[in-house]
Amino acid sequence: MARPSVEAERKAQILGAACAVLADVGFTALRISDVAKRVGTSTGTVHYYFPTKRDLTTAAFEWNFERSLERRQHILELHDDPRTELRAFVDSYLPGDEVTVQAWHVWAELWVEALHDDDLAALNERVYGAWRKIVCRIIEEGQAAGHFRAGDALNLANGLIGLIDGLSLQVLLGSKEMDVERMRVVCDEWLAALDVVEPIRS
Amino acid sequence: MARPSVEAERKAQILGAACAVLADVGFTALRISDVAKRVGTSTGTVHYYFPTKRDLTTAAFEWNFERSLERRQHILELHDDPRTELRAFVDSYLPGDEVTVQAWHVWAELWVEALHDDDLAALNERVYGAWRKIVCRIIEEGQAAGHFRAGDALNLANGLIGLIDGLSLQVLLGSKEMDVERMRVVCDEWLAALDVVEPIRS
DNA sequence: GGGTTGATTGACCCATTGGTCAACCTTGGG
DNA sequence: CCCAAGGTTGACCAATGGGTCAATCAACCC
């Protein structure tokens, strides 16, 4: 080892740039040279760490997921009561601030690419499964504590996640009839319907 | 006029082929030559009717919408009671048969392209608005008839549509945890929750 | 300070593909 | 039967952009 490796750091820079470009112009229009320019390096360097465009984008999709989960870790570590936890978790996914919007754009690109690529579909299944599992766990805890009404927790989780995905898409598309505030209301109504009609105690 | 125009017919053939290719390989990988080959003609002919690739894909997205609505016209013309009508309408959107799956694929491509193209975003707003309006109208009729519980009909419609979109995506992606049958169950639960708790009469 | 190796560069190659175009075909009218 | 005009063809052009590579640099060790 001649010097300390800069590999991890450089890779992170490149992946961050790749996500930004993906969100800006989409998978179709992503150019290796754009990513390089954004990092302030050359296309050669990008290819040095990610031999092909597919290697780069696949790694970027994975990186987007890891960062996305990382940003929400603090919510999960609070160990609030399930109602608060679920609400905070859902809230963190509303495409309001720029970071969240960018992450959503990258997710959308992943979905559509995954429709025609088995490897990406497998990646989606894995990372989407993680998100589904977290929501499912919170719902189960809420049911056990008597806060949430009964029902198949997996179905409930899938419903909530589906709702969020679908609404986010329209928000991202700039629909006049579906903006972040409307989305918040619809999600809140869904969450309210999850609460037991009669609180069990006090 | 030397002969009767074949324009409408040929355009429809080309647009049908374009939708098939879009669904098969996606917007990114759509080639004019693939569309031409599927129709059994030359790239020159495709360009004769649709000067640029963008003209072709935009028209294909619109065509997909029109066909999609057309296929459901019979449901709307039955004038069933709102509960039955809404259920039939939702059911017709489950990505089960091949035709519906292809249409969903094209929708997904539209969404992601529209994220980076204002014209396509406007197209989406228009056609998505039509779909939203239909669902909203059915819900309002159901509320007026006392079948559905009270609540902002537009929000309810947006919630249902968002749910369907989000779930469909995961079904299309071949998720093991979300197939058509599970999707049907989740949608049915949503619809059941829309019914009034105590039927108003008999 | 020389050697080793990781890291970087950007010019270049070449496959791909959207779009053009001039020639040609086909149908129907006069 | 010939002409006009819509319709069709596919070779070709030009641009684009992924990936290669030989040269170079920079950090660290001996």
- Give the number of domains of chain A: 2
Sheet/helix structural class of chain A? mainly alpha
Instruction: List the quaternary state of the chains.
Output: homodimer
The helicity of chain A comes to over 70%
Instruction: Report low-confidence residues of chain A grouped into runs of 5 or more.
Output: none
Distance between the termini of chain A: 65 Å
**What global shape of chain A is seen?**
elongated
Number of helices of chain A: 10
What is the number of beta strands of chain A?
A: 0
CATH superfamily descriptor of the largest domain in chain A:
Tetracycline Repressor, domain 2
| Rg over alpha carbons of chain A | 19 Å
Q: Which series of helices and strands of chain A comes N to C?
A: HHHHHHHHHH
CATH topology of the largest domain in chain A: Tetracycline Repressor, domain 2
Summarize the structure.
The structure is a homodimer of 202-residue chains. The first copy, chain A, is 75% helix and 0% strand.
Explained architecture:
Chain A has helices at residues 7-29, 32-39, 43-49, 53-70, 73-77, 82-92, 98-114, 118-144, 153-172, 180-194. Chain A is mostly helical and 202 residues long. In chain A, helix 1 (7-29) packs across helix 4 (53-70), helix 4 (53-70) runs parallel beside helix 8 (118-144) and helix 8 (118-144) crosses helix 9. At the A-B interface, helix 1, helix 7, helix 8, helix 9 and helix 10 of A face helix 1, helix 6, helix 7, helix 8 and helix 9 of B. Chain A binds a DNA duplex (30 and 30 nucleotides) through helix 3.
